[in-house]
Amino acid sequence: MSTKSHATLRYSAMRASIFLACFLIALVLAHVGVLPVTAGASGVFLLLLIAGLVSAPISFVVLSRQRDAMSEQITGGIERRKADKRSMGARIAAQNAAEDALDDAVRAEQK
């Protein structure tokens, strides 16, 4: 239970960590001069873009188990909500039937 209870949080944190590591590596490479990036906002945007492009395939390969666990967690939650919705509908129908029966009994007594 505990291994899958925070699967989405775990996947998101690991995905952000991989992106941040790629960004820091790109930043160091730009500082050293390996990546010819200009200073300013456009340079930072380019480094963010490079980090995103590099981290996406890395995350796809490295985080496949975490992604599957997150998918199972989300699917399980959706199925539970659907089951709760169906049971709630059945409870409401039963309550309505009981109320109708009581109303019919009261009206029968009044006649």
Task: Please provide a brief summary of the model.
This protein has 111 residues and is mostly helical. Helices cover 89% and strands 0% of the residues.
How many extended strands?
0
What is the CA-based Rg, rounded? 28 Å
Order of helices and strands: HHHH
- Give the DSSP E fraction (strand runs of 2 or more residues): under 5%
Q: Give a quick account of the main beta sheet: strands, pairing sense, barrel closure.
A: none
User: What fraction, in percent, of the residue positions are helical?
Assistant: over 70%
What is the average of the pLDDT values? 85
Overall description:
The protein is 89% helix and 0% strand. With 111 residues, the chain is an all-alpha fold. Helix 2 packs across helix 3 (41-62) and helix 2 (7-32) runs antiparallel to helix 4. The longest helix has 47 residues, at 64-110. It is rod-shaped and about 95 Å long. The protein starts with a helix and ends with a helix. The relative contact order is 0.11.
Layout of helices and strands, plus pairs?
Elements (H helix, E strand, L loop, with lengths): L1 H4 L1 H26 L8 H22 L1 H47 L1
Helix pairs in contact: 2-3, 2-4
Keyphrases for this structure?
single chain; mainly alpha; 0% strand; 4 helices; 111 residues
